[in-house]
Design goal:
- A 3-stranded antiparallel β-sheet has the order 3-2-4.
- Helix content is about 25%, strand content about 25%.
- The protein has one domain.
Amino acid sequence: MRISVTTATILSIFLATAFAQTRPSSPLPATIGLNGSNWKLGSFALGEGEAKQAFLPSFDDRAFRAATVPGEVQLQLGLKGMDLYYQSKQLTLVNEKEWWYRKRFTLPNEAGGKHVRLVF
Protein backbone atom coordinates (compact mmCIF):
# COMPACT_ATOMS: atom_id res chain seq x y z
CA MET A 1 0.00 0.00 0.00
CA ARG A 2 1.29 3.43 -0.88
CA ILE A 3 0.70 6.34 1.51
CA SER A 4 1.58 9.98 1.45
CA VAL A 5 5.16 11.02 2.19
CA THR A 6 4.08 12.52 5.51
CA THR A 7 2.67 9.21 6.71
CA ALA A 8 5.52 7.20 5.20
CA THR A 9 8.16 9.49 6.70
CA ILE A 10 6.66 9.37 10.18
CA LEU A 11 6.26 5.61 9.96
CA SER A 12 9.87 5.20 8.76
CA ILE A 13 11.27 7.41 11.50
CA PHE A 14 9.26 5.58 14.13
CA LEU A 15 10.35 2.13 12.95
CA ALA A 16 14.00 3.14 12.62
CA THR A 17 14.16 4.66 16.09
CA ALA A 18 12.01 2.00 17.73
CA PHE A 19 14.30 -0.81 16.65
CA ALA A 20 17.60 1.06 16.95
CA GLN A 21 17.51 1.40 20.72
CA THR A 22 14.71 0.26 22.98
CA ARG A 23 14.77 1.61 26.48
CA PRO A 24 12.67 -0.30 28.99
CA SER A 25 11.97 2.86 30.97
CA SER A 26 10.80 4.90 27.97
CA PRO A 27 7.04 5.56 27.77
CA LEU A 28 4.99 3.93 25.06
CA PRO A 29 4.54 6.07 21.96
CA ALA A 30 1.27 7.86 21.33
CA THR A 31 -1.05 5.97 19.00
CA ILE A 32 -2.98 7.50 16.13
CA GLY A 33 -5.63 5.37 14.44
CA LEU A 34 -5.75 5.87 10.68
CA ASN A 35 -8.56 3.44 9.88
CA GLY A 36 -11.64 4.91 8.31
CA SER A 37 -13.34 6.13 5.19
CA ASN A 38 -11.45 9.38 4.75
CA TRP A 39 -8.71 7.95 2.53
CA LYS A 40 -8.19 8.51 -1.18
CA LEU A 41 -7.35 5.83 -3.74
CA GLY A 42 -5.90 6.40 -7.18
CA SER A 43 -4.14 4.47 -9.88
CA PHE A 44 -1.29 4.91 -12.30
CA ALA A 45 0.33 2.83 -14.96
CA LEU A 46 2.92 0.57 -13.34
CA GLY A 47 5.93 2.61 -12.24
CA GLU A 48 4.22 5.97 -12.81
CA GLY A 49 3.13 6.83 -9.25
CA GLU A 50 6.62 7.68 -8.11
CA ALA A 51 7.45 9.35 -11.42
CA LYS A 52 4.43 11.64 -10.92
CA GLN A 53 5.50 12.17 -7.30
CA ALA A 54 2.27 10.89 -5.76
CA PHE A 55 4.18 10.59 -2.48
CA LEU A 56 4.48 14.36 -2.06
CA PRO A 57 2.07 16.16 0.25
CA SER A 58 1.55 18.73 -2.53
CA PHE A 59 0.43 16.08 -5.06
CA ASP A 60 -3.01 16.90 -6.47
CA ASP A 61 -5.16 13.90 -5.55
CA ARG A 62 -8.55 15.47 -6.33
CA ALA A 63 -9.08 12.87 -9.08
CA PHE A 64 -8.63 10.04 -6.56
CA ARG A 65 -11.76 8.27 -5.29
CA ALA A 66 -12.85 7.94 -1.67
CA ALA A 67 -11.62 4.76 -0.01
CA THR A 68 -11.82 2.94 3.30
CA VAL A 69 -8.85 1.51 5.19
CA PRO A 70 -8.47 -1.30 5.87
CA GLY A 71 -9.70 -2.37 2.47
CA GLU A 72 -8.65 -4.05 -0.74
CA VAL A 73 -8.45 -2.22 -4.05
CA GLN A 74 -10.68 -4.76 -5.78
CA LEU A 75 -13.41 -4.35 -3.15
CA GLN A 76 -13.05 -0.55 -3.17
CA LEU A 77 -13.76 -0.62 -6.91
CA GLY A 78 -16.92 -2.68 -6.51
CA LEU A 79 -15.79 -6.18 -7.47
CA LYS A 80 -17.79 -8.76 -5.52
CA GLY A 81 -18.20 -12.48 -5.07
CA MET A 82 -16.56 -14.65 -7.67
CA ASP A 83 -15.49 -11.57 -9.67
CA LEU A 84 -12.65 -11.38 -7.16
CA TYR A 85 -11.36 -14.80 -8.24
CA TYR A 86 -12.05 -15.22 -11.94
CA GLN A 87 -9.46 -13.57 -14.14
CA SER A 88 -11.95 -11.29 -15.89
CA LYS A 89 -11.10 -8.34 -18.09
CA GLN A 90 -12.13 -5.97 -15.27
CA LEU A 91 -9.93 -7.73 -12.69
CA THR A 92 -7.01 -7.82 -15.13
CA LEU A 93 -7.30 -4.05 -15.66
CA VAL A 94 -7.26 -3.51 -11.88
CA ASN A 95 -4.26 -5.80 -11.36
CA GLU A 96 -2.24 -4.19 -14.13
CA LYS A 97 -2.17 -0.82 -12.39
CA GLU A 98 -0.25 0.67 -9.51
CA TRP A 99 -2.63 1.75 -6.72
CA TRP A 100 -1.92 4.49 -4.17
CA TYR A 101 -3.75 5.18 -0.93
CA ARG A 102 -3.41 8.71 0.42
CA LYS A 103 -4.51 10.40 3.62
CA ARG A 104 -3.73 13.75 5.19
CA PHE A 105 -3.73 14.10 8.94
CA THR A 106 -2.37 16.39 11.59
CA LEU A 107 -0.49 15.23 14.65
CA PRO A 108 -1.84 16.54 17.94
CA ASN A 109 0.34 19.18 19.61
CA GLU A 110 1.16 16.82 22.50
CA ALA A 111 2.77 14.40 20.01
CA GLY A 112 5.40 16.96 19.00
CA GLY A 113 8.93 15.63 19.48
CA LYS A 114 7.66 12.18 20.50
CA HIS A 115 7.45 8.81 18.83
CA VAL A 116 4.02 8.19 17.36
CA ARG A 117 2.62 4.80 16.39
CA LEU A 118 0.39 4.88 13.32
CA VAL A 119 -2.21 2.12 13.38
CA PHE A 120 -4.05 0.98 10.25
